[in-house]
TrEMBL record:
Signal sequence interval, chain numbering: 1-19
Protein name, entry field: Fe/B12 periplasmic-binding domain-containing protein
GO (cellular component) term, any one: outer membrane-bounded periplasmic space
Ranges in a coiled coil: 154-181
InterPro entries to which the protein is assigned, alphabetical: ABC_transptr_periplasmic_BD, Bact_iron-sidero_bind
Domain Fe/B12 periplasmic-binding positions: 48-315
Top-level division of the source organism's lineage: Bacteria
């Protein structure tokens, strides 16, 4: 009987000890989890050092959606302008990403309701008001020369350096594959220009820039710009210039990427359009401004493949 009682007491004691250990382990796990969630780091920005979450989970970005997505984060909020003019990008955006208002008119109330732990903006004048909601950093793409550098910088900002490198490696493969396809259609010495015929009364001719397909075409695919595009736009670090219809032939390449907006009813183009060699020889690639207005890192990757698809159709 005594042995049985001792055994029972030992079992009870063991249960108590195990329970205490489990409780202690849980306490340690909870504390470690809390420490991880509350961990911060300092990042250098154009506005100086900013203390941000070490691993932000609820990011709002008012412009550079593509760079944030490139490092594997889907933000909880972004500009309606990006959602409206990033048609190639938006299929990869879920309901998680909420509209915070049009560019320049973003709603502080909407951002506040989303409870972000980090806000990324291009607007230095918005930092003060955004900082009242969450840590805010200015991401200035003008500081980076290439699409890849923009991704690396965002990876540093969001503490996702590995994801940034993986994206760039994947981008390099996709660009090489797309270039090989394009080279089967367009001679290597041919020139190609980007002309937006649907935004102004004249035309917009695009250089090597993060908008309207400039970076994908000239920086990533390394296609040849016409001499005047190189001299008057790219060499002067201009993103684009307005060109009158009377002078459009001076900037037209052997091939033309023609940007228009099907959502807007447009009048027929001036007769001079039909005199361009690219038009007369069916060397025009038609694209929608809603798919090509943005040329962020993620959109650029998608545009590279889209251009290859469209250019391949020219030989059919």
């Amino acid at each position: 009987m005594m042995k049985k009682l001792v055994s029972i007491l030992l079992m009870v004691l063991l249960v108590v000890v195990l329970a205490a250990c489990t409780s202690d382990d849980k306490s340690k796990d909870d504390k470690a989890s809390a420490n991880k969630e509350n961990a911060t780091r300092d990042v250098d920005t154009v506005m100086g050092k900013v203390t941000v979450p070490a691993n932000p989970q609820r990011v709002v970005v008012d412009w550079n959606l593509g760079e944030v997505m490139a490092v594997g984060i889907e933000p909880i909020g972004t500009s309606k302008t990006i959602l409206d003019y990033g048609a190639l990008l938006t299929p990869f955006v879920t309901e998680k990403t909420q509209d915070i208002g049009a560019d320049g008119l973003v709603s502080i109330e909407k951002i506040l309701a989303l409870k972000p732990d980090l806000i990324i903006t291009y607007d230095t004048e918005a930092v003060e008001k955004f900082s009242k909601i969450a840590p805010t950093v200015v991401y200035d793409t003008s500081k980076y020369k290439t699409v890849q550098e923009k991704v690396i910088a965002m990876g540093e900002l969001l503490n996702r350096q590995k994801e940034a490198q993986e994206f760039n490696d994947n981008l390099e493969k996709k660009v090489a594959a797309a270039k090989a396809r394009i080279d089967q259609v367009i001679p290597k010495d041919a020139t190609i220009s980007i002309i937006d015929v649907g935004t102004t009364k004249s035309t917009i001719v695009v250089g090597e820039t993060g908008e309207r397909g400039g970076d994908p075409l000239y920086q990533l695919l390394k296609m040849n710009p016409p001499e005047n595009v190189q001299k008057d736009i790219i060499d002067k670090n201009e993103p684009r210039i307005d060109v009158s219809w009377e002078k459009i032939a001076d900037y037209a390449g052997d091939y033309i990427i023609k940007i228009s907006n099907p959502a807007i009813k447009q009048k027929s183009l001036p007769a001079i359009w039909n005199t361009l060699d690219a038009v007369k020889n069916d060397r025009v690639i038609e694209v929608d401004v809603r798919s090509y207005f943005m040329s962020d890192a993620y959109a650029s990757m998608l545009q590279v493949e889209d251009l290859a698809d469209k250019i391949e159709k020219l030989k059919k």
